[in-house]
Amino acid sequence: MTVPGEHRFETVASETVYCGAILALRLDQVAMPGGSVAEREVVEHYGAVAVAALDADDRLVLIRQYRHPVGARLLELPAGLIDKPGEDPLAAAQRELAEETGLAAQRWSVLVDIALSPGFTDEALRIYLAEGLADTDRDEPELEEADIELVRMSVDDAVRGTLNGEIVNATAVAGVLALAAARSTGATLRPADAPWDGVPTAFARRKAAASNRAE
Fold first, then answer.
1. Same domain assignment for residues 18 and 53
2. Which domain holds residue 33?
3. What is the phi/psi pair of residue 178, to 5°?
4. Where would I find the Nudix hydrolase domain in this sequence (predicted)?
5. How do residues 11-60 score in pLDDT, each as one tens digit?
6. What does the alpha-carbon distance between residue 111 and residue 182 come to, in Å, rounded to a whole number?
7. Residue 124 maps to which CATH number?
């Protein structure tokens, strides 16, 4: 019998049952304490980034975007996937901020890192704080992004929005509350290039390998 906290949960077999545009589903057989083997469903996903952007009036720049799985427009932080092989997370955040809001920022720092739902997926997210905003060029938005509405609100109003159910997007809730907590505690934020050990790579490697085989 292993001591709690010391067992090695080794994957003894694995099968991929689906691979799509933004995720894959695999079934892993995992060695459990006591000698048994249990099946675990794992959703592989790209890493993602989001941006808590503060304008010159100390207001958060949020977006209201349609999300088909829930059939509603949600208040969110500008965000997107790290779906280019080897892309730097900060570069991805800068790209997404420009594409979704038409803004660029002079100052960047890491606000918080999140494992979004580790019970079934490796999806992870880094939220940046962006300050010193200015307009920048962007391509004409397409699909859902063509319907994005920009919403600016104070940090206090955003906190109230997370607590009264106006803001329910998990990324936005985490970013808003992390920003409020950092301010109230005087915490020092990490630099924008701080290491991110939790960024997922399995799905990106899978898609890159499939692309190489197709060439």
1. no
2. 1-45
3. -65, -40
4. 44-175
5. 999 999 999 999 999 999 999 998 899 999 999 999 999 999 999 999 99
6. 8
7. 3.90.79.10
Inside any domain, residue 108: yes
pTM of the predicted structure, to 2 decimals: 0.92
Identify whether residues 133 and 60 lie together within a single domain.
yes
162 part of a folded domain: yes
In the sheet with 124-135, reading across from the earlier edge strand, the strands are 79-81, 48-53, 124-135, 103-115, 190-191
145 is catalytic: yes
3-state secondary structure (DSSP) of residue 44: strand
| Rounded-to-integer distance, Cα 3 and Cα 110, Å | 36
Residue 212 lies in a domain: no
Helices (H), the chain: 89-101, 155-164, 170-185, 202-214
Residue 18 is encoded by which pair of tokens?
């689906």
Distance CA 80, CA 169 (A): 14
* 13 lies in the same domain as 80: no
Are both 8 and 21 inside the same structural domain? yes
State how many domains the chain has.
2
Tell me how far apart the alpha carbons of residues 180 and 156 are, in angstroms, rounded to a whole number. 8
Query: Cα(118)–Cα(124) distance, rounded to whole angstroms?
Result: 9
End-to-end CA, the chain: 50
